[in-house]
C-alpha cells in the first residue's frame, strides 16, 4: 500500500521499528522480500512505514524464532495461529531449524580450519540477513566459539585458528556495533570484561544485544584493571556498569569487587556463566546478576538508578 501522508502518527519508519523490536533493518527487509512475513506501507518515494499491528507481528515472529522455528516456517505458523490458536505444535519446525544451525556451525568450523575468510563472511552474512543478532549470537556464533575452543585446547595449529577467528569476529561485530551505536539514543552502558577473562570477544554479544534495544554501549576488555572502572565513570557519563564474565572470579572477591561496589556510584550487574559459579556470592553482595542478558534484565538494572 502506497500512502501520500508521511506524517501519519500511526505509522513508524524502519529505523524506529528496529529500536522498538531489536530487529535490524536488513533483517526486516529480508523477512519482507524473501519470506513475505511483513507487508509495510510505502510512501510515494518507496520508504517503508510500519503500523502498530506490524510491530506486534514482528514481535510474534521473533518469539517463534526464539522458540527454535526456522524463518521459512514462521509464515505458516502465524496463519495457523490466526485460525487455530490452541492447536499449534512446533517439534518438526524446531528440528528443522536446529539442523539449519548445525549446518551453519559445521560450515563455519570448516571455513575457520581452512582460514577461508570469504566463505566465513558469506555464512555469517546469510545468517545475519535473516535472523536478529541475538538469535545469531545464541544459536550460531556462541555455540561455534565454545565448540572450537574445546578443540583448540589440544590440537596443533589451534593458536592460528583462534587468532584468525577472533580477528574476523572483532572486525565483523565491531562494524555492526559502531553503526548501531551511532543510532542508539537510550541509556548508556559500560560493559567490562574483568581481568579473569582470557579475551574480550564475548563482550561483543551483549553489547550488540543492548544496542539493538536502543541502549548506547562502550566496553573495555580484560586489560583494564578493576580499580580503573571508577576512573572511567567519573570522566564520562554512564547509567550503569555491567561485568561480563564466563570464568571464575574468585581472585577478585577479596578486594577488587568490594572496592568496585564502594567506588562506582552506579547500578552494577554481572552477566555470564560466572553466575553458575558465584551466584550465591553475588546475592550476598547485593549484585544483580544473570547468565544471559535480555531486555527485562536491562530494564531492571536501569530502574535501579531511578
Compose a concise summary of this entry.
The protein is α/β, with parallel strands linked by helices and 306 residues long. The chain is 56% helix and 10% strand.
Q: What order do the helices and strands come in, and which of them pair?
A:
Blueprint: E1 2-3, E2 12-13, H1 14-21, H2 25-33, E3 41-43, E4 48-50, H3 52-66, H4 71-83, H5 91-113, H6 117-130, H7 133-152, H8 158-183, E5 188-192, H9 204-212, E6 216-220, H10 229-235, E7 240-244, H11 256-263, E8 268-271, H12 274-284, E9 288-290, H13 295-303
**Strand content range:** 5-15%
Question: In one word, what is the shape?
Answer: globular
CATH topology of the largest domain: Rossmann fold
Low-confidence stretches: 84-93
Biggest sheet descriptor: 5 strands, parallel
Helix content: 55-70%
Strand order of the largest sheet: 6-5-7-8-9
Radius of gyration: 21 Å
- The number of E-state strands comes to 9
Estimate nothing, just give the exact number of structural domains: 3
Helices, by number, come to 13
For the record, give the distance between the C-alpha atoms at the N and C termini, rounded to a whole number: 43 Å
Amino acid at each position: 500500500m502506497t500512502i501520500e501522508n508521511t506524517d501519519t502518527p500511526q505509522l513508524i519508519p524502519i529505523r524506529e521499528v528496529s529500536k522498538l523490536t531489536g530487529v535490524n533493518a536488513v533483517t526486516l527487509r529480508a523477512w519482507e522480500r524473501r519470506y513475505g512475513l511483513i507487508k509495510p506501507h510505502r510512501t510515494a518515494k518507496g520508504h517503508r512505514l510500519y503500523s502498530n499491528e506490524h510491530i506486534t507481528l514482528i514481535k510474534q515472529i521473533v518469539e517463534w524464532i526464539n522458540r527454535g522455528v526456522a524463518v521459512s516456517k514462521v509464515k505458516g505458523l502465524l496463519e495457523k495461529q490466526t485460525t487455530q490458536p490452541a492447536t499449534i505444535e512446533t517439534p518438526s519446525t524446531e528440528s528443522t531449524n536446529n539442523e539449519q544451525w548445525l549446518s551453519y556451525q559445521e560450515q563455519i568450523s570448516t571455513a575457520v580450519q581452512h582460514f577461508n575468510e570469504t566463505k566465513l563472511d558469506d555464512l555469517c552474512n546469510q545468517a545475519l540477513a535473516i535472523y536478529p543478532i541475538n538469535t545469531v549470537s545464541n544459536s550460531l556464533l556462541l555455540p561455534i566459539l565454545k565448540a572450537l575452543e574445546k578443540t583448540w585446547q589440544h590440537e596443533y595449529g589451534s593458536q592460528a585458528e583462534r587468532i584468525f577467528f577472533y580477528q574476523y569476529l572483532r572486525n565483523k561485530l565491531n562494524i555492526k556495533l559502531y553503526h548501531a551505536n551511532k543510532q542508539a539514543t537510550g541509556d548508556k552502558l559500560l560493559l567490562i570484561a574483568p581481568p579473569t577473562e582470557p579475551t574480550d570477544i564475548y563482550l561483543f554479544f551483549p553489547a550488540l544485544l543492548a544496542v539493538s534495544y536502543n541502549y548506547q554501549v562502550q566496553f573495555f576488555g580484560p586489560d583494564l584493571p578493576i580499580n580503573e572502572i571508577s576512573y572511567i565513570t567519573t570522566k564520562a557519563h554512564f547509567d550503569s556498569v555491567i561485568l561480563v564474565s564466563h570464568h571464575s572470579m574468585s581472585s577478585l572477591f577479596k578486594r577488587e569487587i568490594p572496592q568496585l561496589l564502594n567506588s562506582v556510584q552506579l547500578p552494577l550487574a554481572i552477566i555470564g556463566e560466572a553466575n553458575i559459579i558465584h551466584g550465591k556470592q553475588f546475592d550476598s553482595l547485593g549484585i544483580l546478576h544473570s547468565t544471559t542478558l535480555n531486555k527485562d534484565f536491562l530494564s531492571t538494572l536501569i530502574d535501579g538508578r531511578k
